[in-house]
Amino acid sequence: MAGKKSGKFDSSGIEGLAKNKPVVYKIENSKGENIYIGVAKRGRVEERLKEHLPGAQDAIRGGVKVKIQQKSNIAGALKAEARIIKSQQPAQNKKGK
Q: How is domain 6-86 classified at the architecture level of CATH?
């Protein structure tokens, strides 16, 4: 099984996400707006997303859902992240604005 592409933004929702490739992830609020875009390396998807949960070092406030897009390599993931941040200007991203 490849893993799912979206889930609730909590520990159990994060655990089932696909992690066999680098990903671009989007954290959405209750209105479905992207509030944060990030990249996680292959094998670090769960770990990276858990760093954004409330109380963690890189906490993202107001997130309720996470969506991922798998990429074939980290360079592709970084390019996609930059493009999305530039076009959508998520509220909690600091770089790329």
A: 3-Layer(aba) Sandwich (3.40)
Q: Which residue shows structure tokens 């493009």? A: 83
Q: Model-level pTM?
A: 0.93
For 7, phi then psi, to 5°, come to: -170, 175
Q: Which of 74, 86, 87, 60 is nearest to 96 (CA)?
A: 86
Alpha helices in 9-62 (DSSP H): 11-15, 45-50
Domain boundaries, the chain: 6-86
**For residue 2, what are the contacts with CB-CB under 8 A and spacing of at least 6?**
18, 20
Q: What is the pLDDT of residues 12-71, one digit of tens each?
A: 999 999 999 999 999 999 999 999 999 999 999 999 999 999 999 899 999 999 999 999
Whole-angstrom distance, CA of residue 62 vs CA of residue 52: 11
